[in-house]
Amino acid sequence: MSGAVLVAVAAAIGNFLQGWDNATIAGSILYIKREFNLESEPTIEGLIVAMSLIGATVVTTCSGPLSDFLGRRPMLIISSVLYFLSSLVMLWSPNVYILLFARLLDGFGIGLAVTLVPLYISETAPPEIRGLLNTLPQFTGSAGMFLSYCMVFGMSLTKAPSWRLMLGVLSIPSIIYFALTLFFLPESPRWLVSKGRMLEAKKVLQRLRAKQDVAGEMALLVEGLGVGGDTAIEEYIIGPADEFDDAEDPSARKEQIKLYGSSQGLSWIAKPVTGQSSISLVSRKGSLANQSGLMDPLVKLFGSVHEKLPETGSMRSTLFPHFGSMFSVGGNQPRNEDWDEESIAREGDDYVSDAAADDSDDNLQSPLISRQTTSLDKDMPAPTQGSMRQGSLLEGEPSGNTGIGGGWQLAWKWSEREGIFKRIYLHQEDGEIVQAAALVSQPALYNKELMHQQPVGPAMIHPSATAAKGPSWSDLFEPGVKHALIVGVGIQILQQFSGINGVLYYTPQILEQAGVGYLLSNLGLGSTSASLLISSVTTLLMLPCIAVAMRLMDISGRRTLLLTTIPILIVSLLILVVGSLVNLDSTVNAFISTLSVVVYFCCFVMGFGPIPNILCAEIFPTRVRGLCIATCALTFWIGDIIVTYTLPVMLNSVGLGGVFGMYAVVCILAWMFVFLKVPETKGMPLEVITEFFSVGAKQAEVTNNS
């Protein structure tokens, strides 16, 4: 997984630049005011700081559709260029208006980076470490703030600190970021698949996973092209074929799905479990519809899966020790790499199912529906236009591993009797017998309208035909996508109103009132230098906390971290409220206030800081992911602007204690929202997460209607 890790580290430099810029402008604004005589013009002063927020908000409105059209990598390259150009203009800035323009360019770069880096990392990372890698932007952003505060603090000790140099230094790391995005970062394999560029996607996956056999994950990416669909949850008991053959009557065999092991002559049977609802089977701890009617059924659905999910996950199935060609009947199959839309040679060896030649009506096909030669081939009619072409993506190799991460397997079944072709996501459960839960739905490439043209096997369309559909605004109203948008937008709003900006912007004032600034002034530091030193130490303390969160993100999970850290935020804010209202001994007040601020920051960066962006990058289907994550990011920036500009008004009306009290109330609401609405997504492939949202949303509708 080293390839995916290095790519994530390189992409996260975009957030390093954001953190660097935020800290630099906070430290340099004091010197900018003096040079341009802005003490009597607070509006201009506020615009210099806020122009980057305005730029980020504006560019976010189009970043999603543009990233879906141009790709993730080109947008990251544009972000690095904007960072570099803005730093050069800020270094030059002969007047305040040029500085405002430079800050606007800088905001464009920030907006693209903050929106697309989590999206890019989610689409390239393996499920087992996706949470860890997607916490990197939080770590690099805090590291950028710390290094920038150190730089500004050092410059503040000189005789004539230059704010232009402070802001212009950003050009050095932005050049490095530009080189990495241009020469090192690959395009997102999911975006390439969404455009029908299969060969490129396969090569990127092989680089990211450091292995040649990526057929299973390629098939998963193709299946991720669909939005919505009629997904059902089923459950199977899996065992050797002879065990079922002895016990079952011929009519029962019609309901069996045959699985093939890699060893010659070894076959397995998946027998559907009957007699209970599939929902209650998957949700072991009770009815999916919570009796109180408050908890989202989706939360219970995800939770029931994680009860069986291994903590560390697995890129291979635990069902079968050797899974190289589990779903392949013919062993080593000849393959043609003709899935790519750019391939010119489209020879007439279209895919034909061999389901009719098998002794079972239901048969799992190999990854990407690799051709399996049968005695019917010579009798087959000419292939119909638009049917799936032969081959998966690994020429000359045996059928690929169907493991798709987190203990999940991807398979298909074709029922000739019913004329139905279904995709199956299998996940093993614990128990004395081999039992698996399955998400069953229509494949992204299956075209029922072509069935009358294809007498044997499922009628399939080419991936490029599915990819050509592109995102649509109507997709946002599909129940699963709409449900995911409620979760994503809701958690972004609550994060912004949880108090991070208020605590961040007023930390120097809080500590100054507590007497910390006075203590530092005794060391010979001026008020500006003391403020910068406090901020740098605070950001330094964040780094080990983020490192702990990176480790726990894929073990404890996103939901658990939120439910654990938000109560600590509430307690910290309440202590700050008490400290601002009650007169305590100066030393005691300084200690308690400082400790509360540090604890608040450290817990925020472990949970509420990175997790909203991580969740928003995980819960949307590939086709509309860019559009949906841009919607969530737009909510983030609008909330940031509202909180920033209402803070002075709120301080004048209710005071510092009242403001922090209101933030504590928001944190209480946020904890309730997470508990009732936010599911656990650790270790699950992105496509499986979106399937669960589709199932959960429809189950919630049924529950509400009843």
From TrEMBL:
<protein>
    <submittedName>
        <fullName>Monosaccharide-sensing protein 2</fullName>
    </submittedName>
</protein>
<dbReference type="InterPro" id="IPR003663">
    <property type="entry name" value="Sugar/inositol_transpt"/>
</dbReference>
<feature type="transmembrane region" description="Helical">
    <location>
        <begin position="526"/>
        <end position="549"/>
    </location>
</feature>
<feature type="transmembrane region" description="Helical">
    <location>
        <begin position="561"/>
        <end position="584"/>
    </location>
</feature>
<keyword id="KW-0812">Transmembrane</keyword>
<feature type="region of interest" description="Disordered">
    <location>
        <begin position="353"/>
        <end position="400"/>
    </location>
</feature>
<comment type="similarity">
    <text>Belongs to the major facilitator superfamily. Sugar transporter (TC 2.A.1.1) family.</text>
</comment>
<feature type="transmembrane region" description="Helical">
    <location>
        <begin position="627"/>
        <end position="647"/>
    </location>
</feature>
<keyword id="KW-0926">Vacuole</keyword>
<feature type="domain" description="Major facilitator superfamily (MFS) profile">
    <location>
        <begin position="7"/>
        <end position="682"/>
    </location>
</feature>
<feature type="compositionally biased region" description="Polar residues">
    <location>
        <begin position="363"/>
        <end position="375"/>
    </location>
</feature>
<dbReference type="InterPro" id="IPR036259">
    <property type="entry name" value="MFS_trans_sf"/>
</dbReference>
<feature type="transmembrane region" description="Helical">
    <location>
        <begin position="74"/>
        <end position="92"/>
    </location>
</feature>
<keyword id="KW-0762">Sugar transport</keyword>
<dbReference type="InterPro" id="IPR005829">
    <property type="entry name" value="Sugar_transporter_CS"/>
</dbReference>
<dbReference type="InterPro" id="IPR050814">
    <property type="entry name" value="Myo-inositol_Transporter"/>
</dbReference>
<dbReference type="InterPro" id="IPR020846">
    <property type="entry name" value="MFS_dom"/>
</dbReference>
<keyword id="KW-1133">Transmembrane helix</keyword>
<dbReference type="Pfam" id="PF00083">
    <property type="entry name" value="Sugar_tr"/>
</dbReference>
<feature type="transmembrane region" description="Helical">
    <location>
        <begin position="133"/>
        <end position="157"/>
    </location>
</feature>
<feature type="compositionally biased region" description="Acidic residues">
    <location>
        <begin position="353"/>
        <end position="362"/>
    </location>
</feature>
<keyword id="KW-0472">Membrane</keyword>
<keyword id="KW-0813">Transport</keyword>
<dbReference type="InterPro" id="IPR005828">
    <property type="entry name" value="MFS_sugar_transport-like"/>
</dbReference>
<dbReference type="GO" id="GO:0009705">
    <property type="term" value="C:plant-type vacuole membrane"/>
</dbReference>
<feature type="transmembrane region" description="Helical">
    <location>
        <begin position="653"/>
        <end position="676"/>
    </location>
</feature>
<feature type="transmembrane region" description="Helical">
    <location>
        <begin position="43"/>
        <end position="62"/>
    </location>
</feature>
<dbReference type="GO" id="GO:0022857">
    <property type="term" value="F:transmembrane transporter activity"/>
</dbReference>
<feature type="transmembrane region" description="Helical">
    <location>
        <begin position="98"/>
        <end position="121"/>
    </location>
</feature>
<feature type="transmembrane region" description="Helical">
    <location>
        <begin position="590"/>
        <end position="615"/>
    </location>
</feature>
<feature type="transmembrane region" description="Helical">
    <location>
        <begin position="163"/>
        <end position="185"/>
    </location>
</feature>
<keyword id="KW-0597">Phosphoprotein</keyword>
